[in-house]
Amino acid sequence: MAHDGLIAAYLRELRYSLAALGDADDCVAEAEDHLLEVAERLLASGRTRPEAEAEAVARFGSAALVARVCISESGRGAAVPTIRTRQAGLAALVAPTLVVVGQTGNLSIERGVAHGVFIALLVAAFPALLFGLWGLRARHGGLGPLVPAAFVLALVSPILSLAAGWAAFVAFVVLLSLAVGVFAIEMLRASVLPVVPLVLFAAGPICALGVTTLAAGVTVAGEDGGDIPLVVTLTPVGITAVGLAWLGWRLWREPAVDHDASRRTVHHNLTRRRPTSTTTAHL
Amino acid sequence: MRADVLKGHLDLLLLTIVEDGAKHGYAVIEELRRRTDGAIDLPEGTIYPALHRLECAGLLTSEWHEVNGRRRRSYSLTSGGRHAAREKRREWTAFASTVQRVVGAPAWPTMA
């Protein structure tokens, strides 16, 4: 750490501001190297130490600004296809299939191991959907401040579905629809992925909200909300599923920019673990 | 140049600068300033988070070493980063030439 002075005080403030980050020590070490290098150059050009340190700190930006940018950037991707976004695309592609297969089995088989397997497929669709949404966000390099909130909505929505009753189901549908809707609108605004699957992805939640409102109206009117034809209920799910699978397919098809880097890392790790092995030399 | 004008293009600038060889953060910033004749003059501390993000995305790799008794981190391009830089450069060139065709075109003759 620098000797006491403006830079040292600045670094203390920066460390405090970055406490939430896992790599705060590295960030501060980098800032220290930068500030001292700038100060040294300014000293060499004839400034006094207090002047040099003050200018170095001023050029670096306030600790609050740097911390804010560090924290916001740490949650963003680089808006490029990577191995991880491709995997997320595969998850997004698989999620609707899991729902269709799981729900079909769930309705056709009432009990037993097979029924449990179909329920497991239904449950597995949700983490697949979340991973898919994460990948879509990463592929866009962030997608704005509303999307993390939408992701949290999507995350908590199944908790509501655990509660029994029509109201819990309505809350689940509304939250998940809002989350998917926000994702879809932000992706449409970003214009990175094709418009047609994005419109389908956006149309599903809007239809779902419409159907839910209709069903709620029917229930309030004293009739059973379940009286609404199944095809009306399933249409929004189907539209969203097609949109999501299409987007997943699109992500999965993109060549990952870190493909070669990943192969090199694997090779590097193998050679580090087994330095005397003759086989690793040929990997 | 305002930071919001740069939004969306910083990654390309950083990848291009590191493409020439490994550089530490200060050298990246100095090179950015030199190549733009000082037109891009962001708060220097805001470049580091972008470098970290590019590293997390697998486009850059970094190494620590000691210089003058201080820990210094140098960034270099991965092959994925090289590919991404090429892609982003191609997109930028297409975009810039499209805009140029509009803003650089002779004005439509007006009625006297």
Write a brief structural summary.
The complex is a heterodimer of chains A (283) and B (112). By secondary structure, chain A is mainly alpha-helical. Chain A has helices spanning 6-17, 24-44, 49-60, 63-74, 83-108, 113-139, 146-162, 166-190, 195-220, 230-253, 259-273.
SS class of chain A: mainly alpha
DSSP helix count of chain A? Answer: 11
Tell me the span between the first and last alpha carbons of chain A. Answer: 42 Å
User: Roughly how many Å is the radius of gyration of chain A?
Assistant: 26 Å
User: Could you tell me the strand content of chain B as a percent range?
Assistant: 15-25%
**Helix content bin of chain B:** 40-55%
* Mean pLDDT across residues of chain B: 86
Largest sheet of chain B: 3 strands, antiparallel
H/E series of chain B: HHEHHEEH
| Largest contact between chains | A-B, 38 and 31 residues
Please outline the major beta sheet of chain A. Answer: none
How many angstroms does the end-to-end distance of chain B come to?
38 Å
Number of helices of chain B: 5
Range of helix content of chain A: over 70%
Strand count of chain B? 3
Oligomer: heterodimer
Describe this protein's structure.
- The complex is a heterodimer of chains A (283) and B (112).
- Chain A is an all-alpha fold.
- Chain A has helices at 6-17, 24-44, 49-60, 63-74, 83-108, 113-139, 146-162, 166-190, 195-220, 230-253, 259-273.
- In chain A, helix 6 (113-139) crosses helix 10.
- The longest helix of chain A is centred in the middle third of the chain and has 27 residues, at 113-139.
- The two termini of chain A are 42 Å apart.
- By secondary structure, chain B is α+β, with helices and mostly antiparallel strands.
- Chain B is 54% helix and 16% strand.
- In chain B, strand 2 and strand 3 (70-77) form a beta hairpin.
- In chain B, helix 2 (10-19) crosses helix 5.
- The model of chain B has no long low-confidence stretch (mean pLDDT 86).
- The A-B interface holds A 23, 26-27, 29-34, 36-38, 59-62, 65-66, 69-70, 72-74, 76-80, 82-83, 256-262, 264 and B 11, 24-26, 43-46, 48-50, 52-54, 56-59, 61, 67, 70-73, 78-81, 83-84, 87.
